[in-house]
Design brief:
A: Nucleotidyltransferase, domain 5, DHBP synthase, 20% strand, B: 68% helix, 0% strand
Chain lengths: 575, 255
């Protein structure tokens, strides 16, 4: 068994790969701690895996951390000492919080798992990202693009993958020249939470015009193979609390948005903030285009793997797919740091299997999205019956769920294994009829309390997708986990799940998927599209356990819950 | 679990701390529910967690309204960020209480801290009990009316204020904890636990109040370390991976 661990910077996680090279489990710490974005050492996730898979020194081949701890720590510290004063808060913060950084990984690991030292490996941060993508990639050679905030000593990298044993770092960009940190600074300026609100900026961009594009493109640009960021506009390399400087504020004719006020289409200054978002989004798209083109030039490859936090920008991915020099883009279902644990585990596997040059198994992404030999089927859910009644048993789930959806009801799901990536794909979702504007509005605005400018994702059976959406073969797999947006052909009957720019963040599904089965049944009612959003309250992680599910349906006042055992309905609720 | 600098002039910061403390309590109760074997006890913990989640959200709403009333700028530090519940120490990243304490100690802890929370709420309400705030709080109460539980019926006198509603629920939690404790451990005394938690709470308040002063002492020491070790750090050469096969670099090295 090969364990991969990601921690201390973004949401921490643990991945487990077996002796054949297959991912058999993946858990984020936030599932258990219930602290969204929990970046502390994933002790609960690791303990769960140790118990469920009977892990011990005897059956663990390697434990691999997703980055080089000292390298990552020194990169920022050296930059800060060289460029800031000794008493600078960033420098001091790095020293004060050394015991919270990845430097203590080995100590933390030893508290929960006893393995001999020679089994503990450290991968390069961006290599972990590349391998997390390579795991889902069937064909080599390929070129991997990694773009995130920063990791180890790089903020962006191009890796030429000739085989799984020959991955050359052909280009990288160093801190603080970072597309990820640029977009995060804009997120901060727009009053959204850092590392969480970036997708809101992406949604907001569709409502604006890129009127600040020219001025903003002078603060970050890619030219002659070099990514440059003008540090006078940004403060993330000086401050721990503010990511932009007053010079950036002077570019825009509006102050930063206070983060306590909600932003909606009717809010004052909505258009002005949307214009900033649109400008930043265009910058990201243009820089990505330049970096992909550069990668194609220096490697000659047209088959791409794209990972890192910026690879979650599904709007940009759709634009990239239209470029002629690209034949295919593989985006891992969890492209960010938590998914890098999969890459780290894969690194451990490949280090132990030096003759493994290609993927050792047949890659089938739609069937690889909810890994785990263990499920929650053995979790006791009798306590539901105190306040809920079971209206369907396990064999009636599809029939009853379809009937409820056709009646425009909303159903929450806590079904079998949780999804690998940040998007809920049906196992931890809230779903309703996408053809009903009333049901979608209730789901999005009343139950989920999301802003109107953020669209809900449509789910459709693969066989009907072409009727409604313009799909691209180059990024086809990513449609199974909402990795890219698409243009909509047939808007009229699904307006509620179409964004203002006539796009949707589509999810395709196979007939054997739980949502596929429900959709197949719904064809009889002329319902071909479901609306899907993650089963959580915005400040919480996605629901994991049965207790989380119960608590969340109570908090959100949802009437129906679907589990693998059946469907529950709140006692005394109408319908 | 909860502490509140009762005489702190900065009401906003006090509210923020209250909000996180309530959120931390919610997580502790949810963790306890996952370890409970009986359905009834599981639901009991979950209901307690539901109350605490709602309290946390309400307190941040009160903060928002107090800021608007005083035309105060919403500082980024006031924004609810879930991870702060760990960094501020309201939940220990090394383990939930239910993992670390025996059932007896766990219930003692809940009893003592719910009682302390009740006292702290009483003080907090006194500080924002002006007519304008009450008006705002009434609006919040209306928003939350649909979510209100039985505690409201027991505390009708306080139904004008969300904070009073919270206090009523804390009162109920404390009462439940005491009842459960006396039933499970009839020969034990809670007073020692209460005293212990009161001392801990006072120490936390002392630390909170003197944070700036402590920083004045520690910052020069940290600067000294930066001067010494920072110089060494700059000299450390982190090897570049440019044009190297990444699969061949030393996998045992942390640098």
């Amino acid at each position: 068994m090969f364990i991969g661990i990601s921690a201390y910077f973004h949401d921490s996680s643990v991945a487990l790969i077996d002796a054949e090279g297959s991912l058999i489990d993946f858990k984020k710490e936030e599932y258990f701690s219930r602290v969204k974005g929990d970046k502390s050492f994933p002790r609960l996730a690791l303990q769960e895996m140790i118990t469920k898979h009977n892990l011990s020194d005897s059956n663990i081949s390697k434990v691999c951390f997703y980055e080089k701890p000292l390298k990552a720590w020194l990169t920022i510290l050296k930059y800060s000492i060289k460029n800031n004063s000794l008493s600078n808060e960033l420098t001091r913060n790095y020293f004060k919080n050394i015991w919270k950084s990845s430097i203590i990984f080995s100590y933390d690991l030893s508290k929960y798992l006893k393995v001999s030292n020679d089994k503990v490996l450290y991968s390069d941060h961006h290599l972990s990202h590349t391998l997390s993508g390579a795991y889902y990639n069937p064909d080599l050679p390929a070129v991997s693009i990694v773009i995130d905030g920063f990791g180890d000593d790089s903020s962006s990298s191009i890796h030429h993958i000739k085989s799984l044993q020959e991955i050359t770092n052909v280009w990288s960009s160093d801190f603080p020249n970072s597309v990820g940190l640029f977009f995060t600074a804009i997120t901060d300026y727009l009053g959204f939470s850092i590392n969480e609100g970036e997708y809101k900026v992406m949604g907001l961009a569709a409502y604006g015009e890129p009127v600040f594009y020219k001025s903003l493109s002078e603060t970050i640009y890619f030219k002659d193979g070099k990514l440059s960021l003008d540090s006078t506009y940004y403060d993330f390399m000086r401050s721990t609390t503010k990511s932009y400087s007053s010079k950036l504020s002077s570019l825009f004719n509006i102050n930063e948005r206070e983060s306590n006020s909600s932003l909606d289409i009717n809010s004052p200054n909505f258009k002005a903030y949307a214009n900033i978002a649109a400008s930043a989004q265009k910058i990201v798209e243009e820089i990505l285009k330049d970096i992909f083109l550069f990668a194609n030039k220096i490697t000659g490859e047209s088959h791409f793997i794209f990972s890192g936090g910026v690879a979650m920008n599904s709007v940009a991915i759709n634009k990239l797919s239209k470029l002629d020099f690209i034949s295919k883009i593989i985006i891992p279902p969890s492209p960010g740091d938590s998914g890098a644990a999969i890459g780290a585990a894969y690194y451990g596997f490949l280090q132990s299997n030096k003759n493994c040059l290609q993927n050792p198994f047949k890659v089938n992404i739609p069937h690889m999205l909810t890994p785990g030999l263990t499920s929650l089927a053995d979790h006791n859910e009798d306590f539901f019956l105190i306040n809920y009644e079971r209206i369907a048993d396990s064999e009636e789930i599809i029939d009853v769920a379809s009937k409820l959806i056709s009646e425009n009801e909303i159903i929450a799901t806590c079904y079998k294994n949780i999804e690998t990536g940040p998007r809920a794909l049906g196992h931890r979702s809230m779903i309703c009829n996408a053809h009903s504007s009333i049901a979608v509005k209730k789901l999005n605005e009343e139950i989920k309390s999301r802003s109107k400018f953020r669209p809900v994702a449509p789910v459709i059976l693969e066989e009907h997708a072409e009727k409604y959406f313009l799909l691209s073969d180059k990024i086809y797999d990513s449609y199974f986990y909402m990795g890219a947006v698409v243009e909509v052909k047939e808007t009229k009957s699904i307006e509620a799940v179409v964004h203002i720019d006539n796009t949707s963040r589509i999810q395709l599904c196979k007939k054997d998927h739980i949502l596929g089965k429900i959709l197949k049944k719904l064809e009889l009612s002329n319902i071909f599209v479901l609306a899907n959003t993650s089963f959580n309250i915005s400040s919480d992680p996605i629901v994991y356990s049965k207790e989380d599910a119960y608590l969340s349906i109570e908090r959100m006042n949802i009437k129906f819950l679907l589990t693998e055992s059946g469907i529950y309905k709140k006692i005394n609720s109408s319908t | 679990m909860i502490f509140a600098p009762q005489n702190d002039k900065n009401l906003y910061k006090t509210l923020v701390e209250f909000g996180y403390a309530e959120y931390g309590s919610a997580l502790e109760m949810l963790a306890a529910s996952k370890r409970a074997e009986s359905s009834k006890l599981k639901i009991g913990y979950i209901n307690h967690a539901l109350d605490e989640y709602r309290h946390s959200a309400l307190i941040f709403k009160v903060l928002n309204n107090e800021l608007k009333k005083n035309n105060g700028f919403f500082e980024k530090e006031f924004k609810f960020t879930p991870q702060n519940v760990l960094t501020k120490g309201y939940v220990d990243k090394n383990g939930f209480l239910i993992e670390k304490l025996s059932l007896k100690k766990f219930v003692e802890f809940i009893y003592s801290n719910e009682f302390l929370a009740k006292q702290s709420f009483e003080n907090l309400i006194k500080r924002i009990n002006d007519s304008k705030s009450l008006e705002i709080l009434n609006e919040i109460s209306k928003d939350e009316e649909n979510h209100a539980h039985g505690a409201q019926e027991q505390h009708e006198d306080f139904s004008t204020s969300s904070l009073n509603q919270i206090m009523g629920e804390e009162d109920r939690h404390w009462g439940f904890a005491k009842l459960f404790y006396n039933k499970a451990f009839p020969n034990s005394s809670l007073s020692a636990a209460y005293k212990r938690e009161t001392i801990k709470n006072k120490m936390r308040m002392f630390y909170f109040k003197n944070l700036r002063f402590l920083n004045k002492i520690f910052n020069p020491i940290i600067n000294f370390f930066i001067l010494i070790f920072g110089g060494v750090a700059i000299l450390l050469n982190t090897s570049s991976s440019e044009n190297k096969n990444l699969m061949s670099i030393n996998s045992g090295s942390v640098l």
